[in-house]
Specification:
Layout: H1 6-20, H2 25-35, H3 39-44, H4 46-50, H5 53-57, E1 62-71, E2 77-88, E3 94-100, H6 106-122, E4 128-134, H7 143-157, E5 166-169, H8 176-190, H9 214-229, E6 238-241, H10 246-257, E7 261-262, E8 264-267, E9 270-273, H11 280-289, H12 295-300, E10 305-307, E11 319-321, H13 331-339, E12 344-346, H14 355-363, E13 367-369, H15 371-374, H16 377-391, H17 397-421, H18 428-446
Parallel strand pairs: 3-4, 3-5, 6-7, 6-11, 11-12, 12-13
Antiparallel strand pairs: 1-2, 2-4, 8-9, 9-10
Helix pairs in contact: 1-2, 2-6, 6-18, 7-8, 9-10, 9-16, 9-17, 10-11, 13-14, 16-17, 17-18
């Protein structure tokens, strides 16, 4: 049998995905971003072409869509849509978060699940890729409403998850409160205390130290390694951070612990600039405790100001950490950042930078860390939580953070070495995609056609 060239094979797979998944723009964007970098990998590994590896990896193993009925505080029936995409289990049980946000649809969940395959592979933790969520919006809901929604959501999800099958965690809109309600309903439904079935739990009942901070901390650790290799560092740098959830908050915290100064934070209403450095304690009080808006930060922090229009990327800084949501940093933002002298960009969110913006950064010589590498710290620590649950043990904070730091160093090394191997040293997009793909592809090939 004569194999197609890598170029022809990639083109054929892309066309098939575009046909089958028409109308799913986020998913198609994620697939193209990976496939566009794999030509040198397929040239070195023709067995991946012969084995139909790409065709299998771009197709989820299972897609679940279900109705979630619940009653609000006025006793009115509400109905949302729930999702779980179990994308690839070649390396281990499906692992990936749940997102509760009005923007959630099948395309978003598939893009997140596809990214999760490769992100998880880079952690070397032996976990597969999956993702889920709902178009339910927890913002403005009472605790009782959130609890009733979570209980209804879990009544369907319970049939599809397990410690050795699929282990959800949190994401946007799903924090410790939601994980607690979900786990309580799982325990009630199964009559089993399988603490490893969900991660992101409260520390007092099976959660891991530093899990809440892990994605933000990990993005900063990766950026630090990237900068150190380039002979630079975080200390003394001015950083721009978007978002004000867990990822953004703890990225800000770690930047400032390492001697940098994070001066921005944002939400859907606008952004704040605080040239003194964001007051992390105040930010946590407003966003985590009071569940308020970022505009309230400026009202309570002398010397800071709130901007309702534009974006944090209009502000001058040395480092950028997009930590809010997908496609938040576009070509116009990239041009502004480059003009203002940005030195490095590390994605704390999933696919927050558009393909055109990534290309502009790379062409300008700006160090760029893609999310599947830079924000892998969250799922890596979730895997550590699973290990502790299985052993009925608990690590202290210092051990947990040290292990996270080690993992992010390893992710950086794995990514950089792959970029060297495939001819573009320092191209972290190529490095992350190729290193992760080879890991998953080898497992898929060796396990037969399933």
């Amino acid at each position: 049998m004569t194999l197609p060239t890598p170029e022809a094979h990639l083109r054929a797979v892309t066309e098939t995905v575009e046909y089958r998944s028409a109308g799913e723009p986020e998913f198609l964007q994620a697939v193209r971003e990976v496939l566009d970098t794999l030509r040198p990998v397929l040239a070195e590994h023709p067995e991946f072409i012969e084995g139909g590896i790409l065709e299998r990896i771009v197709e989820p193993e299972r897609q679940l869509i279900f109705r979630v009925p619940w009653t609000d505080d006025e006793n009115r029936v509400q109905v949302n849509r729930g999702f779980r995409v179990q994308f690839n289990s070649a390396l281990g049980p499906y692992k990936g978060g749940l997102r509760f946000h009005p923007s959630v649809n099948l395309s978003v969940v598939k893009f997140l699940g596809f990214e999760q395959i490769f992100k998880n592979a880079l952690t070397s933790q032996r976990i597969g890729g999956g993702k889920g969520g709902s178009d339910f919006d927890p913002f403005g809901k009472s605790d009782s409403e959130v609890m009733r929604f979570c209980q209804s959501f879990m009544m369907e999800l319970v049939h599809h998850i397990g410690e050795d099958t699929d282990i959800p965690a949190g994401d946007i809109g799903v924090g410790a409160r939601e994980i607690g309600y979900l786990f309580g309903q799982y325990r009630r439904s199964t009559q089993r205390y399988e603490s490893g079935v969900l991660t992101g739990k409260g520390v007092s009942w099976g959660g891991a130290e530093v899990r809440t901070e892990a994605t933000g901390y990990g993005a900063v650790f990766f950026a630090e390694e990237m900068l150190l290799r380039a002979g630079e560092g975080i200390e003394g740098s001015k950083a721009l951070v978007s978002g004000s959830g867990n990822v953004a908050t703890y990225a800000i915290e770690k930047i400032q612990q390492l001697g940098g100064r994070a001066i921005t934070a944002s939400d859907s209403g606008g952004y704040v600039v605080d040239e003194q450095g964001i007051d992390v304690a105040l930010l946590k009080q407003i966003k985590e405790v009071e569940r308020g808006r970022i505009s309230e930060y400026a009202e309570r922090r002398p010397g800071s100001h709130f901007v309702a229009e534009g974006s944090v990327w209009d502000v001058a800084g040395d480092l950028a950490f997009p930590c809010a949501t997908q496609n938040e940093l576009h070509e116009g933002n990239a041009r502004a950042l480059i003009a203002n002298g940005i030195r490095a960009v590390a994605e704390g969110a999933n696919m927050p930078t558009t393909p055109g913006a990534v290309e502009l950064f790379q062409d300008a010589g700006v160090l760029f860390a893609p999310g599947k590498a830079a924000n892998a710290g969250g799922v890596a620590t979730s895997a550590l939580e699973m290990s502790q649950n299985a052993a009925r043990s608990r690590w202290d904070r210092d051990k947990s953070e040290s292990r996270l730091h080690d993992i992010m160093r390893d992710v950086h090394s794995m990514t950089y070495e792959a970029s060297e191997r495939y001819g573009r040293p320092g191209d972290y997009v190529l490095g992350a995609n190729s290193a992760a793909f080879v890991t998953v592809a080898q497992a898929v090939l060796e396990q037969g056609v399933i």
